[in-house]
Design a protein that fits this description.
- The chain is mainly alpha-helical.
- It has a domain of 218 residues: MetI-like fold, CATH 1.10.3720.10.
- The protein has a three-stranded antiparallel sheet.
- The longest helix is centred in the last third of the chain and has 38 residues.
- It is globular.
- The N and C termini lie far apart (54 Å).
- It is a multi-pass membrane protein.
Length: 479
């Protein structure tokens, strides 16, 4: 039985998942909130993006379940000897990919779907020293003659992956159509797109995801699909591991930003006077400091503390995780001023409404008014800000890691991949696959988050609602 390991960010991620499930339960019980979220449900780009985000979240959660494998007993060990666990911390994602080339490093660079190294090495062949491209340890080792067998094998495996993905997609379509038929939605209406929810768009996205995952899984079982980096690590494996880092940075930083922004923003708008002046002075001073310099200074102080208290960490993963957690706290506690301004402006308007004035006339305490009347009426601004800030923070992490003040060097992130690719693009021949893979994964994650955030903003902000004409006409027929 392995030893479970609970890292700071693991606990934070799963607590956020529980909070999201609790919010979903609350939405189902509230007709007003259900009607608002129904507008998001009817947005085709948003729901297609939601499917992609679900894939990223699944990868991130699998990579957030950590454990230390149990080591076999030592020779001649006593029966009652204590169990020994591996010093390296693994995740469930690592366990699922353990027997694939993704977890088997090479010696150096290799191109996508290659069977030989990208760089030459000195070797002894038939007793003579030669300089040639050596075979990879894991990529394409099943081929006897890579020169003639590689591309036919790639085409065959890609076709098998497409067939498997198409079978899964077909099964998903049949199951969805059967469930929708029980609700009175005909298959013809789904295929023509004449439904209240964008089932056809979601089905097309689901089919594309199945096909892509099927091809990558089929090829990844024997090849390095996106090649390897300078020290031989699989680039696809690094990208999958970087997904968790991006999710932690985007979500945990936003959560850390909310308490000071909500507290100061509502207090400044409601109390006005000296309280407002003090809070404005605080966030004006904070925004006057260049953000990168402020974060860099806090990150360096954090690193000094970690280096001086190395006895607090039993594994390198715990050390890297604490740095990531503290980095999220730093980004959150230095980036709350924008939301604070928005909430202050909204609180200034809400405090003058009749029901707030009536509550004050009846002697209701100030903080009770803030909690019962102001806070629920600004939550739409908070929700819009949360979903919009996520993608910006993912990109911001890439900038910080590029500057060397981001996550721990031993932790995978998109910023670290881009930083390592900085010099690779200037080589001759150019090594392009590391940067390309990070770009594709970041594009898919950030674009999906932005499209979903736009739909949330349009649904919760009455001043920015925009509907397509065909979808707007369909909306009028809905209850």
């Amino acid at each position: 039985m392995p030893q479970l390991v609970f890292l700071w960010t693991d606990v934070a991620l799963f607590l956020m998942v529980l909070a999201v499930l609790g919010y979903v339960w609350r939405v189902r019980r509230s007709p007003a909130m259900r009607a608002t979220w129904r507008r998001v449900w009817h947005d085709a780009p948003a729901m297609s993006s939601a499917l992609i985000l679900v894939c990223f979240v699944t990868v991130g959660l699998l990579d957030s379940m950590h454990y230390r494998p149990l080591l076999p007993p030592a020779p001649n060990a006593a029966p009652d000897a204590p169990k020994a666990y591996a010093p390296a911390v693994k995740s469930v994602l690592d366990g699922l990919l353990e027997n694939t080339p993704l977890m088997k490093p090479e010696r150096n660079y290799s191109m996508p779907l290659a069977t030989h190294q990208f760089l030459k090495e000195s070797m002894i062949v038939d007793g003579q020293p030669v300089r040639d491209f050596p075979r990879l340890r894991a990529g394409g080792v099943h081929l006897k003659d890579p020169a003639t067998e590689r591309w036919p094998d790639v085409r065959q495996r890609a076709g098998t992956g497409l067939a498997a993905g198409a079978a899964v997609a077909l099964a998903g379509w049949l199951l969805a159509l059967a469930l929708l038929r029980r609700r009175g939605v005909t298959p013809g209406a789904v295929l023509r797109g004449h439904t209240d929810a964008p089932w056809r768009a979601m089905g097309i996205t689901f089919t594309a995801l199945c096909l892509v995952i099927g091809v990558v899984a089929a090829l990844g079982s024997v090849y390095h699909v996106f090649g390897t980096d300078r020290i031989g690590n699989d680039v696809l494996w690094q990208s999958l591991k970087s997904v968790r880092t991006a999710l932690v940075i985007g979500s945990l930083t936003t959560i850390a930003m909310l308490p000071p922004a909500i507290l100061f923003g509502l207090a400044a708008g409601y109390f006005k006077g000296r309280v407002d002046d003090v809070i404005q002075y605080i966030y004006t001073t904070l925004t006057s400091i260049p953000g990168v310099l402020l974060v860099a200074a806090c990150a360096l102080m954090m690193q000094v503390y970690i280096d001086n208290h190395s006895e607090l960490f039993d594994t390198s993963a715990a050390r890297a995780d604490l740095r990531l957690f503290l980095l999220c706290m730093i980004l959150g506690l230095t980036g709350w001023s924008a939301l604070c301004r928005l909430l202050r402006a909204e609180a200034l308007k809400l405090r003058e409404l009749e029901y707030v004035q009536a509550a004050r006339a009846f002697g209701v305490s100030h903080w009770r008014i803030i909690l019962r009347h102001l806070l629920p009426n600004v939550m739409h601004i908070v929700l819009i800000t949360v979903v919009l800030e996520f993608s910006g923070l993912v990109l911001y992490e890439a900038v910080l890691s590029y500057l060397g003040i981001g996550v721990d060097p031993g932790m995978n992130s998109f910023g670290s991949m881009i930083d390592s690719a900085r010099l690779e693009m200037s080589r001759e021949p150019m090594i392009w696959w590391n940067l390309m893979t990070a770009f594709l994964f970041m594009l898919a994650l950030v674009l999906s988050a932005n499209l979903f955030a736009d739909a949330v903003r349009d649904a919760f902000d009455p001043r920015s609602r925009r509907y397509k004409p065909a979808r707007a006409a369909l909306q009028r027929t809905l209850p």
